[in-house]
Amino acid sequence: MWDYTDKVLELFYDPKNQGAIEETGEAGVKVATGEIGSIACGDALRLHLKVEVASDKILDARFQTFGCTSAIASSSALTEMVKGLTLDEALKVSNKDIADYLGGLPEAKMHCSVMGQEALEAAIYNYRGIPLAAHDDDDEGVLICSCFGITDTKIRKAVAQNNLLSAEQVTNYVKAGGGCGSCLTKIDDIIREVKQETAKPNLNTNGVKATTEIASSMFNGGQQKPLTNVQKIALIQKVLDEEVRPVLIADGGDVELYDIEGNKVQVILKGACGSCSSSTATLKVAIEARLRDRISKEIIVEAV
Ligand code: FES
């Protein structure tokens, strides 16, 4: 069970500003939309901003999110935070600001705050007619994590801004490393480089001590780590997409991943599966047994 703050739970159970904002042709007003993430990766957010053209002020903000408790709370918090700001002021909102507004997020859920900040940036640049790739310095970076399409630039930014010290933390913030795990060594290298760059101004005073402390806190002697929650989510989604859904779809049904908490996997049975008298068997045999076989014997699947 995640340790959520009261504010996270409040905005999850009673989200503010859920939904879309449509263009109505109202004079002096335009709608900006930014979309980040993909359902295949576990989270997706579409952010809508109603902007007063003359002042660049955000009059209203709404969101549509596919994701977990913290994704919904982060999206809701973001919309509350940016209302009344100008676009330039909104661009200064960081993922840390979103997490702070919520009174903090479990570290494994920090990627939800990053997703909010990125959707905000995407909406504003779309509004300004600047293609995402043209303003996004990621396009000049080297692809590090092919599972999630994350470059070294994005990882460096997350490490520097949030003072990250391990590859597991990077996965929690930007998902890199959360799939097959083959990029984890490269992520460790990037963390070491960023920390060395950060430590350089202090070398004349206590540089030796600083780099020694950083190095010892970054690495765990190459021991095998258990799956992070993000890695687990990505694997579960992959097994559902590649091994379960094709079978169900062939029978006129389908399944959608709804949420994951620890080893409890909640799914929505759809189509013929939703009304089928043998839906319990579908859950236990087609889905739970497959996930236990592929990922963990502890997994329990429930329909919501
Ligand atoms: S390449 Fe990064 S997790 Fe697979």
UniProtKB/TrEMBL annotation:
Residues 143-193 form the BFD-like [2Fe-2S]-binding domain. Residues 4-131 form the NIF system FeS cluster assembly NifU N-terminal domain. Its cofactor is [2Fe-2S] cluster. InterPro entries: BFD-like_2Fe2S-bd_dom, BFD-like_2Fe2S-bd_dom_sf, FSCA_dom_sf, N_fixation_NifU, NIF_FeS_clus_asmbl_NifU, NIF_FeS_clus_asmbl_NifU_C, NIF_FeS_clus_asmbl_NifU_N. PANTHER family: IRON-SULFUR CLUSTER ASSEMBLY ENZYME NIFU HOMOLOG. May be involved in the formation or repair of [Fe-S] clusters present in iron-sulfur proteins. Belongs to the NifU family. This is Nitrogen fixation protein NifU. It comes from Anabaena catenula FACHB-362.
